[in-house]
Write a structure and sequence with these properties.
Blueprint (H helix, E strand, L loop, with lengths): L5 H4 L8 H15 L9 H15 L2 H17 L12 E4 L2 E8 L1 H6 L1 E7 L2 E7 L8 E4 L5 E2 L2 E2 L2 E7 L7 H13 L11
Parallel strand pairs: 2-8
Antiparallel strand pairs: 1-2, 3-4, 5-8, 6-7
Helix pairs in contact: 2-3
């Protein structure tokens, strides 16, 4: 699902007051209501209009949405300040953030702070974590008419720069002392 610009959906400016939002919603809801509209995508359009109104009429939800909108605009090069990291993606009403981990953090576990729409949260990374693992932070996604989405931290284990001799020696020591778990049965 693509990011939806609720202001465009209701054909209003981002600075619109609550009365303007309500009037725009009522006008469009009447126009696209599935029971009266002949438009072939009226039900889909009506749902988009209702979702936009549900978020924009509530000051708290609107503030969170505006922050996400600024982030989306910054990523698309529209010149606004970026408010969240570049490795943040939208998946329906959920936010996905890619979390880079050093191998020892993935192996031993760690705690990190993550940016969210409402501030920072502490996330505990369990020991023996792997690339691609998804950790859910409930209720820190995008607000929508049925509640609030979640934030998912997708882990990505990355190697440190192996340019130093110390790091190379460490990996060489590990290569001789550890049999990689998924290849144990290959030893003959």
């Amino acid at each position: 699902m693509d990011f939806q610009d609720y202001y465009k959906t209701l054909s209003i400016a981002a600075s619109a007051d609550s009365e303007t939002i309500k009037n725009a919603y009522r006008k469009l809801a009447r126009q696209y209501h599935p029971d009266v509209s002949g438009h072939h995508k009226s039900e889909e359009k009506f749902k988009q209009i209702a979702e936009a109104y549900e978020v924009l009429r509530d000051q708290s939800k609107r503030a969170q949405y505006d922050q996400l909108l600024r982030h989306q605009q910054a990523q698309s090069g529209q010149g606004l300040d970026d408010v969240l990291p570049e490795n943040l993606y939208l998946e329906a009403h959920n936010l996905i953030i890619i979390v880079l981990l050093a191998p020892w953090e993935a192996a031993l576990g760690t705690s990190i702070e993550l940016p969210t729409l409402s501030g920072k949260v502490k996330l505990r990374i369990p020991a023996n974590s792997e690339t691609g693992q998804r950790l859910r932070i409930k209720g820190h996604g995008l607000v929508h008419k049925d509640g609030q989405g979640d934030l998912f931290a997708v882990l990505k284990v990355v190697l440190p720069d192996s340019g130093s001799e110390g790091i190379k020696r460490y990996w060489q020591q590990q290569s001789g002392s550890v049999i990689f778990g998924s290849r144990k049965e290959w030893r003959g």
